[in-house]
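Appendix B, example 12.
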Amino acid sequence: MPTPDEWRSEAMVGLAEAVRFQRDLYLYWREAWAADGLALTARGLVTRPALRRMRARLLAADGMRAPGTVDADRTEAEDARLFFVRRLLQRLGLLRAAPGDARLLAAEQREMARYLAHPLAERLRICVRLWVAGGWWPDAPDPRAEPPRLMTPAPPRIALARRRLLDALAAMTLDTIHALPLAPRASTDRRTRTSVRRRTASVPLRADTTMDGATERAALLGPLAWLGFAVVEETQVEGLRASVYRAGMAVQALRAVEDEGAALALPEATGRVVLSPDFTLVAYPPLTAPELLLLDACADEDAIELTARYRLSRPAFARARALGWNADEVARRLTALADVPGSPTGGFLFPANVRVTLDDWERHVERLRLTRDARIVTTRTAETLDALLADTRARHWVERRLAPTAALLVREGVAPVRAWLLRHGELPAVSEA
C-alpha cells in the first residue's frame, strides 16, 4: 500500500490523478445532490453561478483557493475537465435531466454507492469504455454549440483511433516516451510548413500531424490525462522544448482484463483518519471517493479543504440506519477507514465514549420505525383484539401488536380479519389511504 509520499512520486503520478478524478466525480455529484439539482442554460450548459460553486468545491479539495474573477466567469464548455466530469456523470446515470425542466438532478445515494463499490480498476475501465465509443464527448467542444446528445455514438474513425491509442498505452512500459502529436495547422503558407518540418525533424521522437494524430492529441491532453492513463510532460530535446507523453500507472486497469491480478496493483489508499472523543473526524489527504461517501453517510460535513472535517451526530447516524447500518457496522467501517497500515500511531483505537453514544443513538432510533403501506386494525376494546390474537389462524394475518387495541396486519391479512370480525358480531369499517 503506497504511503502519501509515494503517491507524489513520479511512478505514481498517473494513479494519483486517477484517484483524484474519481474523487472529483463524487464531489461533483455530491454538490448537485446537496443543491437539489443544477440549472441549465438554453444551450444545455450548467449556469455560471452553479459552476462557480462547483469550481470552488473541487479546488478546495486540492487545497487551493477559489478562482479569480476571470476564471470564475468561464462557461462550462471553456473548462474542459469540469465539462467532461459532468458529461461522464450523465453517461453513468448519476446525473439525469429533469423531465420538463432545464435542470440536472443527482441520482440517489445508493446508486453512487453502487458505482463506488467497484474496485478502482473496474471504475476506470467503465469510464474509458464510455469515452471510447461515445460521441457525447467531442475532441474539441464548441462553446457556442449545444452539447451532443448523450447517447450519440462516436464516428467510427474517431472511435477506432481512440481504441488504438488505448491499446498502445496498455502495451507501453512506464519509462517509454513518445512525442505528443502536433496540433493540425490550417495555414497553407510554404514558409510555415517548412518551419514545422525543420523543427520536428530535429526531435528524435515521432510527432503525428494527421487527423488521427489530432484525435490522439485531444485524447492525451484531455480524457486520458484526466483519467490517469497518460502523463503529459514538457522536456528538452536537442535544445528545443517538446511535449511528450508516457503511460501512467492507471494503465494497469487495461491489463486487468487479461490478468485479473493486475487489478490489485491499483490501490485507492486513503490518508490518515483521526476520530476524536469529541465526535470530530479529520481525514488527511489523499482523499478518495469511497472514503468521502462513507463519511457523508454517517457524519455531518464541516468542511472539505485540503483535509476533510466531519462530526458524528444523531441525525447523521439516522441516515446511516436508513442504509441498514447499525452501531456495530458504523464503528466497524470507521475503524477500517482509520486503521491505516503503516501509520506512525499504530493501530486505531475507537474512542470508548463514542462507541457508547452510538449504541445510545441506536436505541433512540429503534423507538421510531416507519412502515410503508401499513395496514392496521383497531378494535373498540382490548378484549376483542385479545380474542383475535388467540385464534390460531391469526399468526398468518397479524404481523405484530402495536397497542392494546391496535395491531399491524400483513398485506394479505385485511380480508380474513374483516371476515373474523363480522363472524364475531363486529361491523368493521375499512378506510383506504
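The radius of gyration is 29 Å. The longest helix spans residues 13-34.
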